[in-house]
Amino acid sequence: MIQHLNIDDELEEIIIPKSWETIGAASQLALLDTEADTPDLTEADREQLCQGVLGDLRRTFREICEQATRVRERVMADGLKGYPAIMARPLADDENSARAIATAALQDFFFHDGQDVKETTVYTGAIACSRETLGALLELNRRKDCFKKGMKRLRVLLTDHQARTEMEKIYSALLPEAPVNVSRKEAGAMVRNCIHRRLNIRQLERAVPVVPVCPDRIRWKHTIVPSTLRISRHALIEVLESRQNTDIQARFDLETVAGCADPEFQWKKGENEDCRIAVYCRSAVADNDEKWDIKNLSFKGRVPVFYLAPALAMYIPKPKPRKNASAKNRKPELVFQHDLDQRHERTGTTLKESFLMSMDVRRYRKYAESAGASVVQR
Fold it and tell me: Organism's domain of life (predicted)?
């Protein structure tokens, strides 16, 4: 069952005062985008600055919710005009259901039960829209980008000691049961506690694929990619030390790292599913009236693609009745690749074999070869 966002209910969860929305911290933070330093500010100015950062996030979250509701209404209205829609994941039985799922994807900002904090829900589909709806979607993307920039400002602010101390005072006043220490790494948890405890910031920030023309083909390609992390030698030693009491292999790995001078390593933590959307727009480029010159577009594929309805694109010929059964003769042609491919790892960056026994950690080739050359010279 599709449940749509109730703005009033979600805004009630926010503990940031509404009055902070009007402070306007973005202009005050212009210098902090490049330099995290606030020693010249008075304590009162620093307090206002921190309140303004949180107020900006509150305002942009509210604006995203409001715009997502407007988009949902427009997308559903487009369905009454007979514009096509399809959802392959989750699978929809008809076009009305496809549009309902697609609009739910646009308002899916919250973690579901059992969802990992680093996981985002995948929605695969293509929805034909009017030009007005596409414009509303672009405005939604603009507001999402504003929230993303607000998160960046918050993280930059938390790198300054004096500003972080002030933010800790404000945070503890808003949420007395919250941890006292606030750091850049904990900015996401802090925002969830202030706006909505189940807020999925990654899903809130991800842009919606919008194609302002009717493409010839849309192709989805799913791959399995390794999840890797660049980790310093010091941090790796700390991880191994925390495991040595329960994992005997970690003890041997500690000795291995201690005897290696590499400053950093690559830690392969697992695998993730990745999807890329390739959009081919040859007919739109060829049509002089359309004033469109981009033949190929590419998007990350966890949100449905919204494109100009074929009925509104004069350069898209209407299929003859006898050809309606052939998907290739309809525009756009939709190609869903459901089988997962294994993406080949880039060669030359790291050694193929794991450096340790208890963790999949690999040495960077440049350090390993440099160490080998030093041995040879001796």
Answer: Bacteria
